[in-house]
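Cast an eye over this sequence plus tokens and walk me through the fold:

***
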Amino acid sequence: MKPQEKSIQELENDFWPDLNQYIAGLVERCHRYRKIKLKDLQIHQIKTLLIQDIGSEYLMPIVLERMEYDISEEDDYDGSSFIESIDLFSGEIFKRNPELHKATLDLLERKQKEIENLIGWK
């Protein structure tokens, strides 16, 4: 089965127990998002997980692929995008994986003109 057909909990083989009550809404959302197949995750869900550094080894390649295709892609749910959220992702992701950091910077450099047009500055 392709990784996109699995959830983070399946890929990591780490199944968090369901709770009757969660200490915070964020904890409950992360718990719920870890159960969704990668191919079905929406931008706001991926963003939430990456800010918390959950499933980053599986999610960052998806983010880079989607940003390469459409740097301004927006979530139908809340209008969020990866380009406006990438600086919120946990810095630990890039510390652990310098190649991923370089790939991200290279993508941003290649897409610089599109980004400038998108956000309206140079």
Notes: The chain has a mean pLDDT of 92. DSSP finds seven helices and no strands in the chain. The chain has one domain: 3-119. Helices lie at 8-12, 25-33, 43-51, 56-69, 91-96, 98-110, 112-119.
